[in-house]
Amino acid sequence: MVDLLRRLAAEALGTGTLVATVVGSGIMAETLTNDVALALLANTIATGAILVVLISTLGPISGAHFNPAVSLVFALRRELPARDAGLYALMQVVGSIAGAIAAHAMFELPLLQSSTHVRTGGAQWISESVAAFGLVAVILAGIRFERKAVPMLVGLYITAAYWFTSSTSFANPAVAIARSFTDTFSGIRPVDLPGFIGAQVAGAVIALALMTWLLRVPTGSDLPINPENRT
Amino acid sequence: MVDLLRRLAAEALGTGTLVATVVGSGIMAETLTNDVALALLANTIATGAILVVLISTLGPISGAHFNPAVSLVFALRRELPARDAGLYALMQVVGSIAGAIAAHAMFELPLLQSSTHVRTGGAQWISESVAAFGLVAVILAGIRFERKAVPMLVGLYITAAYWFTSSTSFANPAVAIARSFTDTFSGIRPVDLPGFIGAQVAGAVIALALMTWLLRVPTGSDLPINPENRT
Amino acid sequence: MVDLLRRLAAEALGTGTLVATVVGSGIMAETLTNDVALALLANTIATGAILVVLISTLGPISGAHFNPAVSLVFALRRELPARDAGLYALMQVVGSIAGAIAAHAMFELPLLQSSTHVRTGGAQWISESVAAFGLVAVILAGIRFERKAVPMLVGLYITAAYWFTSSTSFANPAVAIARSFTDTFSGIRPVDLPGFIGAQVAGAVIALALMTWLLRVPTGSDLPINPENRT
Amino acid sequence: MVDLLRRLAAEALGTGTLVATVVGSGIMAETLTNDVALALLANTIATGAILVVLISTLGPISGAHFNPAVSLVFALRRELPARDAGLYALMQVVGSIAGAIAAHAMFELPLLQSSTHVRTGGAQWISESVAAFGLVAVILAGIRFERKAVPMLVGLYITAAYWFTSSTSFANPAVAIARSFTDTFSGIRPVDLPGFIGAQVAGAVIALALMTWLLRVPTGSDLPINPENRT
């Protein structure tokens, strides 16, 4: 296993780049068009693409969680020590705020902002639970059946989830926190964070429970077993 | 083989997620833009992406049919017992209706709706036959030549078929039934279902016949034989 | 090798499906939007996607040329007998005209049409030469280095070429002929065919010459040699 | 290794095709729509697609740098002799200018132009540094972990970077120079070149330093080592 310092650097770099992409592409899109669907489509394509790239290139170093809810799931599966999971989450938050600031720097905007974008209510919370449920389910099944496909599967999953949820699928507490620091297309009011984060964690834990059952190897099964299915 | 209960759960979960994506992304798109082509493009990209994800992650469990016409084809090929095919179809319908309801919940719409979207006539029925023909042909050839590519091939096929058919390629009786329960972008009037479903089944059976001939291993052929071409 | 009858059926089916996609998605797009760039984008995505599908599923049967210029190149490389190449071209033309008719049927339009879409002049001919040059270069290099990637490479190449040529990259004499039979988005006047086809053949032959030099294995080279680089 | 003449031809052909795609798709897009976001999306998709194609087909010949900043990085890593790197850069510039001229020829525009598109200022320079940093990081990590994925990773990275940077991510001195020769969508004023090129080289060198640390094999590590990770 790679030493902790480098793993934490990879988590910060990856989550930061992810947020810079989400925030930056949102700024670029809303600057160039008045059609919100087109802006969201550009935002979607940029986010899906960078996820494939980041998970492929940093996954072999840190596992490429980039998401405290995902690190929590691996800690609950006892595949990551609780202390490491906590440090992962910390670096994900630090990295993702740096990513938002970097996006602002690249677009000549005030570096520190506070979002006024209202995102709250039951429908949005259901959306975030579904989004995080799906994300964790995809990761667990992907690791189980074909680890090499995980980057593409996560990128494609988020591409779809941007559109099938009313919240545009944050699905990530660290990214949500960072997005409260930008008053642009992809922002979220700080006061709306607890609802989002609670819903995300709930969805992730439910996915862990369901997938643990669904993916358990049945006795005498010929379900393919991925020889590399350990972290 | 995985036990039936888990296979049925995978079929319900997969078909439900597929319908939630089709319906949800349609709602999101028509909310954000007045350009119908742009709405269909977003709908297309979300659907194509989630198909790759669902077939990759649930395929090793249940085969990832998510479609009674596909289960019928595998039953006719004697690769799935008739009883299992019937249960698959049942769970696909149940799951897909749940998926439509979930989409409504995520967008704060009435959970149960009845579509008023007219989709009927010869051109639409030809479209659905062609769409289902192509879907089954892609699946059978994909399994025959390179099973690992099937998720991507199906996702890309549906991406194209959304645009080259006037019906936007439902190609799936379970999904069609579920879409009669939403009065949004992707809906279909209940009264239009029989025409669609009949056309889909016809297209699927024709594809089975043609591809059985086209893919038969010729004597002394060096056509590559996929060693895993059994379910 | 698969028997000739099935190979010819695969060429007709594949070229027909390709043309049905090009023509059908063009009709769908121009029906739904007034923005020509958006229409072309939908047309592009559908075409690129179906190319990956068709080459993956029919390639193991016939080689998936779907294009008389490509069959000519393989005949010149002596990897396809001249008689077979002629029959391939014939079936490609027959299949592609059937594909245009099928698209019209799916959209309830007159089955037989004659295009009035003007596509002529030096810039368009240069475009078609460049487009066919690139297509053949991609195919020959793809076969040489990694045959399994050819479907994706051709799909992505055409995706790009739709936009970097002023002609939207027909790059295919059979498809061009079929497109003269539709008076919709993707049509071409019959009188403009000779210029397009001449330019396409010229581009293809130049690519054959250049790539034969570029891909020749140097003495003592460690350039990877694809063990399956024979048809 | 392939002889130098062919490697230089591959670098010129690849960089030229890349620029023809960037410039040509920009011209096509701005001709067809008034929505700048839609134009940039078309530009993005064409560029991302052709990058995958070019790196896949020419990579085995020359390494598919197509970028003096990338050749510099490989020279600093002592994987390419300084003289070869200089010749690579020269041919990249020559090829890329030829690519811009080819795009103009395909769209019937004056072959030689001088851009008036202003691209300057700190935010743009930060953007170019970030863009080149990311490009080099992706290449180095991709080579380290899974060389075969590099074409797709670079294509997806640039797809995202077009949108998360205010400069639309040139990230390439040769391409920047060529783009000063077109007064269309993708152009850049000649006077703005030094700022862009300086920022790109800085970003590339910083990426080399950081990734050399991040990717170093730790003692006793089980970090996967790619057996082909030498050029």
UniProtKB/TrEMBL annotation, chains A, B, C, D:
Where it sits in the cell: the answer is:
Membrane
Looking up InterPro entries in the UniProt record yields: Aquaporin-like, Aquaporin_transptr, MIP
Q: Where are the transmembrane segments?
A: 12-29, 41-64, 85-105, 125-143, 155-175, 195-215
**Which keywords, in A-to-Z order, does the entry hold?**
Membrane, Transmembrane, Transmembrane helix, Transport
Membrane topology of the entry: Multi-pass membrane protein
Record GO cellular component, one term = membrane
Tell me a Gene Ontology molecular-function term this record carries.
channel activity
- The reply to whether Transmembrane helix figures as a keyword in the UniProt entry is yes
The primary site where this protein sits is membrane
The UniProt family comment states: Belongs to the MIP/aquaporin (TC 1.A.8) family.
Q: What is this protein called?
A: MIP family channel protein
Q: Which organism is it from?
A: Devosia elaeis
